[in-house]
């Protein structure tokens, strides 16, 4: 079996070297760079199975790298490393297509677990469940194209991240059913995911901006307070 290739982009020397030592000890093959531009060049020229991106880096920020990577590959896992705790930073990372984020300082055990969980989720995508939906399907008033990770609403095109597509598939398979936050996390992130339901809420908020005619007044992905969300697929005219 070929080793899993992880690209680490971190401008702090000690942390970058520590990440390399830790990940190589786990059996991963690691390529480490100190700035965002170098990270993007490595991604374009080498096979990368997962990216660890610091947000504040020279040349290109982690946000910029994430955006450019998603223009090329909608599926490769991306975990953001951030020293900031503001909600807007986490939301922005998720909106650009990151799969997860870890706030510094973080424990190496936590990081290892997050990496393993993301890789497992990507490798055990339930093809049987996906096959139940056509390659092009309706979600409320939006039209979704699964192969291209594109959508269209009222004549406006938008792109979807792999996680957003997964959530759309889950909701589409359970119209009118109330899905708890924990249930959605387990289905979309895996039962071994160690994050919080806030991650789900942030993804749903970004998804609503794309598929809801009026995101501030959602009627397709409806919040069921204290429980989770419900897909009201028949609510669209």
Short structural description:
Helices cover 42% and strands 22% of the residues. The protein has nine helices and twelve strands.
Write a structural description.
This protein is an alpha/beta fold and 237 residues long. The chain folds into two domains: 5-123, Rossmann fold; 127-235, Winged helix-like DNA-binding domain superfamily/Winged helix DNA-binding domain (Arc Repressor Mutant, subunit A, Orthogonal Bundle). Helix content is 42%, strand content 22%. It has helices spanning 13-25, 36-45, 62-72, 87-95, 108-123, 127-131, 162-172, 181-189, 197-211; strands at 5-9, 29-33, 50-54, 78-82, 100-103, 136-139, 142-145, 150-153, 156-159, 178-180, 221-224, 228-231. The strands form three sheets. A five-stranded parallel β-sheet has the order 2-1-3-4-5, sandwiched between helices. Strands 6-7-8-9 form a four-stranded antiparallel β-sheet, with no helix packed on it. Strand 6 (136-139) and strand 7 form a beta hairpin. Helix 2 (36-45) packs parallel to helix 3 (62-72). The longest helix is centred in the middle third of the chain and has 16 residues, at 108-123. The radius of gyration is 18 Å and the shape is globular. The model is unreliable at 126-131 (pLDDT under 50).
